[in-house]
User: Which sequence fits this backbone?
């Protein structure tokens, strides 16, 4: 992504045309490196996003990310609200040929009208926003002092200075470029990126693609300073891979660079948010799985001890059978084990402080305790195994998720079982209203409709909403989505059952296998037991079909 001075110059030009004369309506800071401003402009209210993170640093307009704001605004956000609320934007400019843009403001207060500048340094991990008045820093998003080893102070009250230059040739100065090109050696792309200021490696590649390896200083000067540009987005495997100010072969044109930039970053940021959310959900479920597995291991260990209960009972009975030979003070009893067909002898440990009868009772009591413990542990084991299977079904749903819609209800499911913290009540009401239930995966084939759940909550609703004669499908031995063929009073054909089974196998833990066994039955034979977890059902009168997983995306018709 070429967030270099070359690309920033065109972005700033479009921002200046769009926002000059606009007034600040609202200022938020949803994330520590993200500023969001609503601005009244001649084109209506436009959202300005200023992302100062290392990977996605940019200034963009019109993006529709719905990022919730914190309950308490950060200090820098409060500072901007204090000085820039209702301020008028006088200009948006680039500082020289640097990766620095600044917004000029006319600020109104009860006592005076002042002018301030918000400098935005779009410099990767060094990105920053600095509010300046009369050349003096009022505040900065990321502060630095000499005590921290910083080369440049960004504390309140210090004089604002632009980031230190790197000693490269200025591409807006033809003479300076000519001097630099006198020493041109080796790969042209690397030379330009290393020796010309404000040119990223990707932009250098575009220059060389345009003029060849023997590019001259004059050609580079003309490329950089040409006021005409054609914004575009480069796609790779159907996904936006980069955006550029100059048209490339095979790229998709856009009317404005802000639009191209927004198209690229919308995809990139949504992809990152999806990955982050997926990772957060997986982490929560994995943590719960480990706890259940640990509890199960402890239960198995205790049950293995309980398996010795019969041996304890036999020892008690041998003491009773040989009580005539036992005397108080004895520590061991050698007796024939009449439960052994071979009549082997067994050594029974005795407590010398107890009478023979008390020693026998001690073994009987231990036997009774082990039996009771085994009964209790058996129930705990069954419950833990059900819990673990349920958690693994959630993990399968998360791993099979394709977009944010697939994760929305799974997140709510984790909140409902206390694996994730619940949002506050106000946000909960808002989210429920603004985030309706996600649609099923829906397919149309041969006059039939096939639906497929995305998560346990959808699987529950899907199965519950079927008619008695609809066909329900699920993989035989793997976690999978619930799939159904809507028959509308008719009967599913063998072809549509095979088709639906392939979809079911694809959205399962067995996706990578060659053949998968899928059970199918009429809905009338499928039911959910009382108190069962989301997505859990039992079924009878079913048949099994062996199919290869297939997504059948060509027939998908999600609403």
Assistant:
């Amino acid at each position: 992504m070429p967030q270099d001075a070359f690309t920033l110059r065109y972005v700033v030009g479009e921002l200046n045309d769009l926002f000059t004369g606009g007034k600040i309506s609202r200022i938020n800071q949803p994330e520590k490196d993200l500023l969001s401003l609503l601005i009244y402009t001649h084109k209506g209210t436009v959202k300005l996003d200023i992302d100062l993170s290392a990977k996605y640093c940019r200034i963009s307009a019109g993006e529709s990310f719905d990022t919730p704001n914190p309950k308490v605004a950060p200090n820098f956000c409060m500072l901007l609200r204090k000085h820039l609320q209702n301020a008028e934007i006088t200009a948006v400019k680039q500082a020289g040929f640097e990766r620095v843009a600044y917004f000029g403001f006319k600020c109104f207060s009860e006592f005076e009208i002042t002018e301030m500048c918000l400098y935005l340094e779009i410099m990767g991990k060094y990105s920053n926003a600095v509010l300046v008045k009369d050349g003096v820093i009022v505040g900065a998003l990321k502060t630095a002092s000499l005590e921290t080893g910083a080369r440049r102070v960004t504390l309140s009250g210090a004089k604002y200075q632009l980031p230190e230059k790197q000693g490269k040739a200025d591409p807006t100065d033809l003479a300076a470029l000519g001097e630099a090109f006198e020493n041109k050696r080796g790969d042209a792309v690397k030379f330009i990126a290393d020796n010309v200021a404000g040119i990223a490696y990707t932009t250098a590649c575009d220059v060389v693609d345009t003029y060849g390896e023997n590019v001259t200083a004059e050609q580079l000067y003309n490329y950089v300073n040409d006021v005409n540009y054609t914004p575009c987005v480069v796609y790779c495997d159907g996904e936006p891979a980069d955006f550029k100010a100059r048209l490339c072969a095979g790229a998709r044109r856009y009317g404005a660079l802000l639009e191209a930039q927004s198209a690229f970053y919308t995809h990139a940021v949504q992809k990152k948010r999806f990955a982050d959310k997926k990772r957060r959900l997986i982490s929560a479920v994995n943590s719960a799985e480990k706890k259940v597995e640990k509890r199960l291991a402890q239960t198995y260990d205790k049950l293995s001890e309980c398996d010795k209960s019969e041996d304890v009972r036999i020892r008690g009975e041998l003491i009773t059978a040989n009580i005539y030979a036992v005397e108080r003070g004895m520590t061991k009893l050698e007796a024939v084990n009449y439960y052994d067909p071979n009549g082997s002898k067994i050594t029974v440990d005795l407590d010398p402080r107890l009478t023979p009868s008390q020693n026998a009772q001690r073994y009987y009591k231990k036997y009774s305790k082990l039996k009771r413990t085994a009964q209790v542990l058996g129930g705990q084991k069954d419950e833990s195994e059900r819990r673990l299977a349920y958690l693994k079904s959630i993990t399968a749903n998360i791993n099979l998720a394709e977009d944010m819609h697939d994760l929305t209800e799974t997140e709510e499911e984790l909140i409902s079982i206390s694996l994730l913290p619940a949002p506050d009540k106000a946000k909960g009401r808002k989210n429920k209203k603004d985030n309706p239930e996600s649609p099923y995966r829906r397919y149309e084939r041969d006059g039939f409709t096939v639906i497929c759940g995305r998560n346990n909550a959808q699987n529950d609703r899907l199965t519950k909403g079927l008619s008695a004669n609809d066909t329900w499908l699920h993989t035989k031995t793997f976690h999978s989505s619930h799939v159904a063929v809507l028959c509308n009073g008719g009967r599913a054909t063998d072809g549509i059952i095979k088709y639906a089974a392939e979809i079911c196998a694809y959205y399962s833990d067995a996706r990578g296998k060659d053949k998968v066994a899928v059970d199918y039955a009429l809905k009338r034979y499928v039911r959910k037991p009382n108190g069962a977890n989301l997505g859990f059902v039992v079924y009878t009168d079913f048949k099994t079909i062996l199919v290869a997983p297939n997504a059948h995306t060509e027939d998908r018709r999600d609403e």
